[in-house]
Amino acid sequence: MIEPGPPTSLDSFHRGKFWLVQPADGGHRAGIDAMILAAAVPDGFAGAVADFGAGAGAAGLAVIARCASANTVLIEKSPQMADFARESIGLAQNTELSRRASVLEADVSRSGDARTRAGLADRSFDFVIMNPPFNSEADRATPDALKKEAHVMQAGLWDSWLRTAAAVLRPRGRMALIARPESLPEILTALEGRFGGAELMMIHPRQAGAAIRIVVRAALGSRKRLTVLPPLVLHGPTGNGFTERADAICNGLQSLYGD
After folding, report:
1. In 205-243, where do the E strands start and end?
2. Smallest Cα–Cα separation from 73: which of 165, 194, 199, 204?
3. Cα separation of 194 and 157, whole Å?
4. What is the pLDDT of residues 95-132, one digit of tens each?
5. pTM score of the predicted model
6. What's the CA angle centered on 40, arms 39 and 43, to 5 degrees?
7. Contact, 20 vs 93, CB < 8 A?
8. At what angle do helices 184-191 and 157-168 cross, to 10 degrees?
9. Which domains does the chain have, with CATH numbers?
Protein backbone atom coordinates (compact mmCIF):
# COMPACT_ATOMS: atom_id res chain seq x y z
CA MET A 1 0.00 0.00 0.00
CA ILE A 2 1.38 3.40 -1.01
CA GLU A 3 1.46 5.89 1.83
CA PRO A 4 -0.13 9.27 0.98
CA GLY A 5 2.29 12.19 0.73
CA PRO A 6 2.16 15.28 2.94
CA PRO A 7 -0.64 17.78 2.29
CA THR A 8 0.35 20.45 -0.21
CA SER A 9 -0.86 23.77 -1.50
CA LEU A 10 -0.56 25.39 -4.92
CA ASP A 11 0.34 29.07 -4.60
CA SER A 12 0.84 31.84 -7.15
CA PHE A 13 3.52 34.54 -7.03
CA HIS A 14 4.21 37.68 -9.03
CA ARG A 15 0.46 37.92 -9.68
CA GLY A 16 0.32 34.58 -11.40
CA LYS A 17 3.58 34.70 -13.36
CA PHE A 18 4.74 31.52 -11.58
CA TRP A 19 3.39 28.96 -9.12
CA LEU A 20 4.78 26.77 -6.34
CA VAL A 21 3.84 23.43 -4.88
CA GLN A 22 4.49 23.81 -1.14
CA PRO A 23 3.90 21.86 2.07
CA ALA A 24 0.54 22.95 3.42
CA ASP A 25 1.28 22.65 7.13
CA GLY A 26 4.91 21.63 7.58
CA GLY A 27 8.36 22.55 6.34
CA HIS A 28 9.10 25.99 4.92
CA ARG A 29 6.50 28.04 3.08
CA ALA A 30 7.81 30.82 0.88
CA GLY A 31 6.77 34.41 1.51
CA ILE A 32 8.02 37.95 1.03
CA ASP A 33 11.58 37.14 2.17
CA ALA A 34 12.07 35.07 -0.98
CA MET A 35 10.53 37.76 -3.20
CA ILE A 36 12.71 40.50 -1.70
CA LEU A 37 15.83 38.35 -2.10
CA ALA A 38 15.01 37.59 -5.74
CA ALA A 39 14.59 41.31 -6.39
CA ALA A 40 18.25 41.87 -5.42
CA VAL A 41 19.16 40.51 -8.87
CA PRO A 42 19.18 43.45 -11.33
CA ASP A 43 16.50 43.85 -13.97
CA GLY A 44 17.58 42.38 -17.28
CA PHE A 45 20.19 40.12 -15.68
CA ALA A 46 21.48 37.48 -18.09
CA GLY A 47 23.34 34.48 -16.73
CA ALA A 48 23.26 31.54 -14.36
CA VAL A 49 21.78 31.99 -10.88
CA ALA A 50 22.30 29.56 -7.99
CA ASP A 51 19.54 29.63 -5.38
CA PHE A 52 21.13 28.28 -2.17
CA GLY A 53 18.59 26.77 0.24
CA ALA A 54 15.93 27.00 -2.44
CA GLY A 55 13.12 25.18 -0.66
CA ALA A 56 10.28 24.80 -3.16
CA GLY A 57 12.06 27.23 -5.50
CA ALA A 58 10.39 30.58 -4.82
CA ALA A 59 13.38 32.91 -5.05
CA GLY A 60 15.07 31.24 -8.02
CA LEU A 61 11.85 31.08 -10.01
CA ALA A 62 11.08 34.69 -9.10
CA VAL A 63 14.40 35.74 -10.64
CA ILE A 64 13.80 34.01 -13.97
CA ALA A 65 10.16 35.14 -14.06
CA ARG A 66 11.47 38.73 -14.08
CA CYS A 67 14.72 38.25 -16.01
CA ALA A 68 14.00 36.57 -19.34
CA SER A 69 17.66 35.82 -20.13
CA ALA A 70 18.50 34.23 -16.77
CA ASN A 71 18.48 30.58 -15.78
CA THR A 72 18.53 29.09 -12.30
CA VAL A 73 19.60 26.01 -10.39
CA LEU A 74 17.49 25.47 -7.26
CA ILE A 75 19.92 23.98 -4.73
CA GLU A 76 18.29 22.29 -1.74
CA LYS A 77 19.62 19.84 0.87
CA SER A 78 16.28 18.39 2.00
CA PRO A 79 15.11 15.59 -0.34
CA GLN A 80 11.50 16.39 0.48
CA MET A 81 11.82 20.11 -0.28
CA ALA A 82 13.83 19.32 -3.43
CA ASP A 83 10.88 17.18 -4.56
CA PHE A 84 8.58 20.18 -4.04
CA ALA A 85 10.94 22.25 -6.21
CA ARG A 86 10.84 19.61 -8.97
CA GLU A 87 7.04 19.53 -8.80
CA SER A 88 6.97 23.32 -9.02
CA ILE A 89 9.14 23.35 -12.14
CA GLY A 90 6.93 20.68 -13.68
CA LEU A 91 3.67 22.60 -13.22
CA ALA A 92 1.78 23.45 -16.38
CA GLN A 93 1.58 27.03 -15.11
CA ASN A 94 5.40 27.19 -15.17
CA THR A 95 5.91 25.83 -18.68
CA GLU A 96 7.53 29.05 -19.90
CA LEU A 97 10.08 28.92 -17.06
CA SER A 98 10.75 25.20 -16.89
CA ARG A 99 13.42 25.13 -19.62
CA ARG A 100 15.46 27.67 -17.61
CA ALA A 101 15.24 25.96 -14.21
CA SER A 102 16.63 22.79 -12.66
CA VAL A 103 17.05 21.27 -9.20
CA LEU A 104 20.26 20.12 -7.53
CA GLU A 105 19.91 18.17 -4.29
CA ALA A 106 23.06 19.20 -2.40
CA ASP A 107 24.39 20.59 0.88
CA VAL A 108 25.99 23.98 0.14
CA SER A 109 27.96 23.86 3.40
CA ARG A 110 30.27 21.18 1.96
CA SER A 111 33.77 22.18 0.94
CA GLY A 112 36.56 21.06 -1.39
CA ASP A 113 36.14 17.77 -3.22
CA ALA A 114 32.93 16.95 -1.34
CA ARG A 115 31.35 20.13 -2.69
CA THR A 116 32.48 19.41 -6.23
CA ARG A 117 31.23 15.83 -6.08
CA ALA A 118 27.85 17.17 -4.93
CA GLY A 119 27.56 19.05 -8.22
CA LEU A 120 28.72 22.49 -7.07
CA ALA A 121 31.56 23.06 -9.51
CA ASP A 122 33.96 26.00 -9.30
CA ARG A 123 33.13 29.07 -11.37
CA SER A 124 29.82 27.77 -12.63
CA PHE A 125 27.45 30.65 -11.74
CA ASP A 126 27.17 34.38 -12.33
CA PHE A 127 24.98 35.17 -9.30
CA VAL A 128 24.25 33.41 -6.02
CA ILE A 129 21.20 34.17 -3.89
CA MET A 130 20.71 32.69 -0.43
CA ASN A 131 17.91 32.58 2.11
CA PRO A 132 19.38 30.21 4.71
CA PRO A 133 17.89 29.11 8.02
CA PHE A 134 18.60 32.16 10.18
CA ASN A 135 16.63 31.62 13.38
CA SER A 136 17.99 30.31 16.67
CA GLU A 137 16.55 27.05 18.00
CA ALA A 138 14.81 29.00 20.79
CA ASP A 139 13.09 31.22 18.21
CA ARG A 140 11.70 28.25 16.26
CA ALA A 141 11.00 25.49 18.75
CA THR A 142 8.94 23.01 16.72
CA PRO A 143 8.42 19.24 16.60
CA ASP A 144 8.23 19.42 12.79
CA ALA A 145 11.64 18.13 11.61
CA LEU A 146 11.26 19.57 8.09
CA LYS A 147 10.34 23.00 9.42
CA LYS A 148 13.22 22.92 11.94
CA GLU A 149 15.72 22.08 9.19
CA ALA A 150 14.43 24.98 7.08
CA HIS A 151 14.41 27.58 9.86
CA VAL A 152 17.06 26.84 12.50
CA MET A 153 20.61 28.08 11.86
CA GLN A 154 23.58 25.79 12.38
CA ALA A 155 26.87 27.06 13.83
CA GLY A 156 29.20 28.53 11.20
CA LEU A 157 26.50 28.71 8.56
CA TRP A 158 27.41 32.12 7.15
CA ASP A 159 31.07 31.22 6.76
CA SER A 160 30.36 27.90 5.04
CA TRP A 161 27.65 29.23 2.72
CA LEU A 162 29.67 32.30 1.69
CA ARG A 163 32.76 30.13 1.20
CA THR A 164 30.79 27.99 -1.25
CA ALA A 165 29.33 31.07 -2.97
CA ALA A 166 32.84 32.44 -3.52
CA ALA A 167 33.95 29.09 -4.98
CA VAL A 168 31.09 28.60 -7.44
CA LEU A 169 30.94 32.17 -8.74
CA ARG A 170 32.70 33.22 -11.91
CA PRO A 171 35.02 36.26 -11.82
CA ARG A 172 33.07 39.45 -11.06
CA GLY A 173 30.09 37.37 -9.97
CA ARG A 174 27.78 38.66 -7.28
CA MET A 175 25.96 37.33 -4.24
CA ALA A 176 22.87 38.48 -2.35
CA LEU A 177 21.45 37.22 0.94
CA ILE A 178 18.59 37.98 3.29
CA ALA A 179 18.88 37.60 7.05
CA ARG A 180 17.92 38.96 10.43
CA PRO A 181 19.74 42.16 11.47
CA GLU A 182 21.47 40.44 14.39
CA SER A 183 23.37 38.25 11.90
CA LEU A 184 25.13 41.25 10.34
CA PRO A 185 28.41 41.02 12.34
CA GLU A 186 28.87 37.35 11.41
CA ILE A 187 27.96 38.05 7.78
CA LEU A 188 30.47 40.89 7.46
CA THR A 189 33.19 38.71 8.96
CA ALA A 190 32.40 35.90 6.52
CA LEU A 191 32.53 38.33 3.57
CA GLU A 192 36.11 39.39 4.37
CA GLY A 193 38.64 38.18 1.84
CA ARG A 194 35.88 36.87 -0.42
CA PHE A 195 33.45 39.64 -1.31
CA GLY A 196 33.57 43.43 -1.33
CA GLY A 197 31.49 46.41 -2.32
CA ALA A 198 28.73 45.21 0.00
CA GLU A 199 25.43 47.07 -0.38
CA LEU A 200 23.39 46.83 2.80
CA MET A 201 19.66 47.53 2.84
CA MET A 202 17.45 47.36 5.91
CA ILE A 203 13.87 46.11 5.60
CA HIS A 204 11.41 47.84 7.96
CA PRO A 205 7.79 46.83 8.55
CA ARG A 206 6.87 50.52 8.95
CA GLN A 207 8.74 53.81 8.75
CA ALA A 208 8.93 54.13 12.53
CA GLY A 209 9.68 50.45 13.22
CA ALA A 210 13.01 48.73 13.72
CA ALA A 211 14.39 46.68 10.84
CA ILE A 212 13.26 43.04 10.75
CA ARG A 213 15.45 41.89 7.86
CA ILE A 214 18.63 42.93 6.08
CA VAL A 215 19.65 42.31 2.49
CA VAL A 216 23.35 42.28 1.63
CA ARG A 217 24.60 42.25 -1.95
CA ALA A 218 28.32 42.03 -2.71
CA ALA A 219 30.76 41.29 -5.54
CA LEU A 220 33.38 38.56 -5.64
CA GLY A 221 36.87 39.95 -5.04
CA SER A 222 35.77 43.59 -4.99
CA ARG A 223 37.86 46.05 -2.94
CA LYS A 224 35.06 48.61 -2.61
CA ARG A 225 33.80 49.58 0.81
CA LEU A 226 30.45 48.85 2.43
CA THR A 227 27.54 51.10 1.41
CA VAL A 228 24.39 51.49 3.52
CA LEU A 229 21.45 52.31 1.25
CA PRO A 230 18.03 53.81 2.05
CA PRO A 231 15.72 51.17 3.54
CA LEU A 232 12.74 49.36 2.10
CA VAL A 233 9.58 50.08 4.11
CA LEU A 234 6.93 47.41 3.67
CA HIS A 235 3.76 49.06 5.02
CA GLY A 236 2.30 52.51 5.50
CA PRO A 237 1.50 54.03 8.91
CA THR A 238 -1.76 52.06 9.19
CA GLY A 239 -3.17 48.87 7.71
CA ASN A 240 -1.41 45.85 6.26
CA GLY A 241 -1.20 46.92 2.63
CA PHE A 242 2.23 47.22 1.01
CA THR A 243 3.75 50.55 0.12
CA GLU A 244 3.85 51.18 -3.63
CA ARG A 245 7.56 50.31 -3.79
CA ALA A 246 7.27 47.17 -1.67
CA ASP A 247 4.33 45.96 -3.76
CA ALA A 248 6.32 46.41 -6.97
CA ILE A 249 9.35 44.61 -5.53
CA CYS A 250 7.39 41.69 -4.11
CA ASN A 251 5.49 41.21 -7.37
CA GLY A 252 8.46 41.24 -9.74
CA LEU A 253 7.82 44.67 -11.20
CA GLN A 254 10.90 46.42 -9.81
CA SER A 255 14.34 45.42 -8.60
CA LEU A 256 15.30 46.01 -4.98
CA TYR A 257 18.36 48.13 -5.76
CA GLY A 258 16.84 49.99 -8.69
CA ASP A 259 19.27 48.59 -11.24
Report:
1. 213-220, 227-228, 232-233
2. 165
3. 15
4. 999 999 999 999 999 999 999 999 999 999 999 999 99
5. 0.90
6. 65
7. no
8. 40
9. 8-250 (3.40.50.150)
